[in-house]
Amino acid sequence: MSTTMIGASRVGFETRSYFRSPDAVFFTFLFPVIMLGIFTAAFSSAGDIQPAPGAEGVSVGAYYLPGMLAAGILLSGVQNLAVDIAGEKSNGTLKRLGGTPLSPVSYFMGKIGQVFVTGALQAALLLVVAATVLGIALPTTLEAWLTFAWVFVLGTTTSALLGIALSAVPRSGKSATAVVIPIVLILQFISGVYLQFSQLPEWMQNVASIFPLKWMAQGMRAVFLPDDFKVLEQNGEWDLGLVAIVLVAWLVVGLVISRVTFRWIRRDA
User: Fold this and answer.
1) ABC transmembrane type-2 domain: which residues (predicted)?
2) Within a domain: residue 269?
3) pLDDT digits over 4-52, tens only?
C-alpha cells in the first residue's frame, strides 16, 4: 500500500479512537458548544453588543459564535493531538508503530485527517445549535461561506501541525494535560474567545497577535459579524489577507518542528 492509502486508512482508526475517549469528546468536541450556551444564557440580559453607539448590534450569542468556532479548531488540533500523541509516546504505542511499515507521513495524515473529520462535525454541531436553539442568524452569502471554508481549512491544518509539534514538549503522557491545557486556555482568553478583543489592553492584543488563534477568531468574525464590527479590530479592518499570511506562517512552523522533533521513541527514553 502507498503512503497515501495507509494514511487514509488511519483516519478512520484515529476518528473511532477519538470518539471512544469520553474526556476528549467532552473537552474538545462538546466544550465550545457548552461554552456558547453558557455565555448566551449568562449575558443576554445585558442586551445586544454594538461596535459603536447607533450602529447595528448583534446578540451576545452571535458575537461569541466566531470565537467559539475558532476555539473549537484550536482544541481539536492543538490540545487534542498534543495530549494524544504525548500519551501514545508514554504508553508505548508509538514504539510499537515504529516497528511496523507505517511511516511518519502516514501517521501524520491519520492524525490530521481525524482533526478535520472531528473539527468539521464540531463546527456543524455548533452552527446547528446556534441557529436552531439559540436563534442566531447565520450568513446567507456565498462569499461569507467561502471565507469560512478557507479559514477553517487553513486554521485546522495549522492547529493540527502545531499540536503534533507541541506533543514533543511534555515529558510524559501524565504531564501532557498539565502542560498543554494552560497554554490553550491562556490563548483563548487573550485572543478574543471569552473576552471582547477590543476591550483587552493593547499590550495583550499585541501578544495575542503573535499566535494563530487571534487570527482564526478574526477571520471567523469577518464571516459572522456585520461589517460595522471591523472597527473593533486592531487595524480597524478584517485584514483577511493578513489572516491568511499569519496562518500559513504558523503552518510552516508547525510542519518543520513536527518533522524535526517527531520520534517513534523519545531520545531520553
Assistant:
1) 23-265
2) no
3) 898 899 999 999 999 998 888 888 899 999 999 999 999 888 889 999 8
Domains held by the chain: number: 1
Partners of 49 in beta bridges:
58
Query: Residues 157-185: what's their mean pLDDT?
Result: 93
Across the range 139-150, mean pLDDT stands at: 97
- Is 118 part of a structural domain of the chain? yes
Determine, yes or no, domain membership for 62: yes
SS3 256: helix
Distance between CA atoms of residues 159 and 251, nearest Å: 8
H or E element at residue 205: helix 202-208
Does any domain span residue 12?
A: yes
Full residue range of the structural domain in which residue 244 is found = 3-44+56-261
- C-alpha to C-alpha distance for 7 and 13, rounded to whole angstroms: 10
Question: What's the CA gap between 58 and 47, in Å, rounded?
Answer: 9
Q: Following DSSP, what letter does each residue of 163-185 receive, concatenated?
A: HHHHTTS-SSHHHHHHHHHHHHH
Extract the C-alpha cell encoding 51.
Answer: 461596535
Separation between Cα atoms, residue 13 and residue 220, nearest integer Å: 30
Q: Which of left, alpha, beta for 138 (phi over 0: left; psi -120 to 50: alpha)?
A: beta
Q: Long-range pairs for 91-95 at CB < 8 Å and ≥24 separation?
A: 91/173, 94/263, 94/264, 94/265, 95/264, 95/265
184-225 pLDDT, tens digit each: 999 999 999 999 999 999 999 999 999 999 999 999 999 999
Residue of 165, 19, 138 lying closest to 78 (CA atoms):
165
